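Appendix B. Worked example

We walk through a single record from start to finish. Start with the input: the chain for Tricarballylate dehydrogenase, Pelagibacterium lentulum, length 470.
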Amino acid sequence: MGTPASLASLKSIEWDIVIVGGGNAALCAAIEAREAGARVLLLERAPKPYRGGNSRHTRNFRCMHQGPMSVLTDAYEEEEYFHDLMLVTKGNTDEPLARMAIRTSESCLPWMERNGVRFQPSLSGTLSLSRTNAFFLGGGKALVNAYYNRAQDLGVTVVYEAEVTHINIEGDSFNSVQVKRDDEEAEISGKAVVLASGGFQADIEWLARAWGPAARNFLIRGTPYNRGEVLRDMLDSGALSVGDPTQCHAVAIDGRAPKFDGGIVTRLDCVPFSVVVNKDGERFYNEGEDVWPKRYAIWGRLVAAQPDQVAYAIIDAKSANLFMPSVFPAEKANIIAELAAKMGLPAGKVEETISRFNAACKPGAFHPTELDGLATKGIEPAKTNWARPIDTPPFYGYSLRPGVTFTYLGLKVDQTARVSNNAGLYRNIWAAGEIMAGSILGQGYLAGFGMTIGTVFGRTAGREAAAYVN
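Next comes the structure step. The output line below is what the pipeline stores for this chain.
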């Protein structure tokens, strides 16, 4: 375990399984394969302090269960889970793969606990997820550390700062990887490979080719190391692709976040209780369409479609404590015109927009954690839930920009996580996590579901690769 002195020292070892990537899916595959007796090499491109890919920024795992389990309350059964997925993907999913991920998630949670992951009850601001999502104690970084500790105990060999530049394939079979580390390059052989190296979202040029010039204004919430080299290499080698390069997990995040690696703390959860305007001071979408865990992931694309890819959420004092606090303090003022000026917005237009919204709000019961039907009347777009006037100072404002977590263009796999090509399936190439998530996430996103896909298919790929080797 750890980083060997040189890549050359790895060439003489007969590796059973080479795992490309170092996040949740890769670690699940490594643990399963090693427990099955395979000799496992894991190649993580990031330096050790940044190991774990996007997984270190996660906070929960969406899990099917037929009754209370661990920190999860009540029940969340297959049909409801699948219905929730269909709502956000609008049916753009591979149903057999989706149902496999959902069903298998139930057995994953106790497996995660056995391998050192600890969970905690939902916190204030996330109570609506207490039935559907199990939250990691210490967040994704703690999960990643737990899995690396488990892998070390099992004897998995890990190499950090190891960039895989090419997957060597002959016919339908993998035989080696080309690896670069500092100024050293090596070809390392293996009997099977699991690809778990993420999407291409950190390659801004690739994003811009897919989306157009607007993508240059996107912020990348996750790791800067997921640049899609392995994905591109596999597609160039004849692997079948799945998913649309313009589809991704993109959320509205704080516009002051860094270009890369800001993580989950940059997310803003205030939208359902706000009025959201673009740089011209105009509303453009229903802020109260559904509960935030089901709809938050559409807002990245909505903001991306606005001028300069920016929007602004405005709330009043009534709503200031109804959502998870932001990492950066909001702009604050006692009158709307002053707040608009602080955010660089046309004050008169914003005042007009807020006045029209307030006039359209009607009396009714307000319930912040459930669909309450408290809707506007007579304006477009309508706000269909949680529509209360923005009338109680102080007023607060946040800038919003699209924050991309991961892209959905990926490798096509079957239910054993084996990668497809034009002739059928590769004999000994598996994929797990974000690099194949587009098979299930054709569009949209469901909170915690990326971790579900990574855990289910990582475990599956590790087991299947080990069975092939054995």
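Two observations about the output. The chain has two domains: 8-245+408-469, 250-403. The chain has a mean pLDDT of 95.
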